[in-house]
Amino acid sequence: MKSLMALLLVLATPVLAVEKAEDFAWQATLQTPVAGPWFQLDLPLPALLAARHNDLRDLRVQNAQGQFLAYSLLQPAAEYRQAEQSHGVRWFPLQAEQATTGLPPGLRIESRSTGTLVEVQPATTSGNQPLPRQGWLLDASAIQAPLVRLSLDWDGAEGFQRFAVESSDDLQHWQAVGDYQVARLSFAGDRIEQREVRLPALRSRYLRLLWRSPAVAPELRAVQLVSVQEGYVEPPLLWSEPLPAQPLDAQSYQWKLPRALPVQALRLPLSDANSLVPVRVQGRVDTTRPWAAVTQGVLYRLPQQGREVREEELRLPGWPLSELRVQVDARGGGFSSAPQLQYALSGQRLVFLARGEGPYRLLLGNAKAASVELPLATLMPGYSSEQLRELPKATLLLPAAQAAPEQTQSGAVAGDAQADWQRLALWAVLLVGVLLLGGMAYSLLRPRKSV
Predict the structure, then answer these.
(1) How many Cβ atoms sit within 10 Å of the Cβ of residue 125?
(2) DSSP H helical ranges for 94-232
């Protein structure tokens, strides 16, 4: 019995072996220049390609003492962003009569897609004397985003400049925005200026500034409007280096990827201007599977309104694919030469708890590894979205020379074979153990013959 148990332990030893850094084919150093204890890292494409599994179950983080650290993986989500942009705009004087009527009588508009204001003729009295200037008309028709700030610079007069702001899209119907003031003050060699006012996220093609007191508006030297673009920005994809095509015939091309990857997009640059190339894309996960349709679309490089418009990317559903084939509709003219292909993957964000001494290392490339990832709520108890965004960022120092993923396929196959052998050994150990326990139970429960 003891010899049988010893045999079972010997058989189970390779299965229950503890992971070591040498079990991972790809390693890189993590730099953590500030105190943590948590750090985040957006994994680059070489790290994703080094993994043996698309779910990154073979990812490990190790400290200088050889201890594996707790970590979590996140899919980067769309981020809400606000981007401000400053615009210099044209301004036109409004005399007293023009400021009180809806449409200035001397207004001339050039018919353009932006509706740009060209000229406002000054109004005059019966004696051909110009009326006092009471305001200014601002042309904001070229700005598509909401207006949030107005900045003015003027000549001469010190003191407070009080004015009302009105908005219009047709120069006939005006809506009040609010009353504002700017100031320029000086005393004993000191000077104070307040030249900017805030607007309530205003969408308008034209603004009218009307001075209340004094009735004469100052001469403007500069006018600037600040707009804000806001919305959700999708996280960027990770693009590969261009891959040369394997021509199959005059209108078909094929590419082999490092392994079956969840491809999110393709890019096929067009070398010639005035190109139009309808394409169909097929793919398969390995050579034993049939080709399946993935997507189709039209690639082009065409002139439009004095500039060149390009569409050279195709979105894919993210299925695992190891081979791609592009078929060209010859009626569009096709490619002038064999195209080069770039594929894109979704990014992954690593969050880890730095324990022990550095330098820390990122390990990948172990076909038999199982996932040890923790949920983020476990890794960071009570975390918030704001806290997650403000985590310090680690830096990954990529190895100077790493075998390309396609060059390690034979080693990966050997690793798979070893993993299969160990899996079979584990099942054999379990089966022998069950038989042994069954035999022991039968011997104990079997009725004994009386003497």
Answers:
(1) 11
(2) 96-100
Token pair 């010899």: residue: 3
Residues 120, 137: Cα–Cα separation, whole Å: 9
Within 10 angstroms of residue 38's Cβ, the number of other Cβ atoms is 19
The set of residues, in sequence order, having a beta carbon less than 8 Å from that of 1 and lying 6+ positions away, is: none
- Residue 419 DSSP SS3: helix
Q: Give dist(CA 125, CA 101) in Å, integer.
A: 15
Q: What is the DSSP letter of 408?
A: G
**Residues 131, 135, 140, CA angle at the centre, nearest 5°?**
135
CATH of the structural domain 238-345, one choice from 3.30.360.10, 2.60.300.12, 2.60.120.260, 3.40.630.30 = 2.60.120.260
What's the whole-model pTM score? 0.64
Tokens of 280: 């169909």
How far apart are alpha carbons 394 and 353 in whole angstroms? 11
Task: From first to last of the 451 residues of the chain, give the pLDDT tens digit.
Answer: 445 444 444 444 444 457 888 999 999 999 998 877 999 999 999 999 999 999 999 999 999 999 999 999 998 877 777 888 999 999 988 876 555 554 444 555 554 555 555 555 555 555 555 567 888 999 999 898 999 999 999 887 788 888 999 999 988 889 999 999 999 888 877 888 899 999 998 999 999 999 876 667 788 899 999 999 888 888 899 999 999 999 999 899 999 999 999 999 999 999 999 999 999 999 999 999 999 999 999 999 999 888 899 999 999 999 999 999 999 998 988 998 999 999 999 999 999 999 998 899 999 999 999 999 999 999 999 888 888 888 999 999 988 655 444 434 444 444 444 545 556 666 676 777 777 777 777 676 666 555 4
For residue 316, give Cα distances in angstroms to 64, 94, 236, 265, 344.
41, 56, 15, 5, 9
Structure tokens at 168: 């219009």
**How many other β-carbons are positioned within 10 Å of the β-carbon of residue 26?**
22
Instruction: State the DSSP string of 335-370.
Output: -SSPPPBEEEE---EEEEE--SSS-EEEEE--TT--
Reading phi first (left if > 0) and then psi (alpha if -120 to 50, else beta), residue 306 is in left
Alpha-carbon distance of 10 to 2, in angstroms, equals 13
DSSP code of residue 222: E
- How many Å is the maximal CA-CA distance in the chain? 146
Q: In the chain, where does the domain assigned CATH 2.60.120.260 lie?
A: 84-233, 238-345
Write down the CATH number for the domain with range 84-233. 2.60.120.260
Q: Are 233 and 78 in contact (CB under 8 A)?
A: yes
Look up residue 200 and give its two tokens: 């309530």
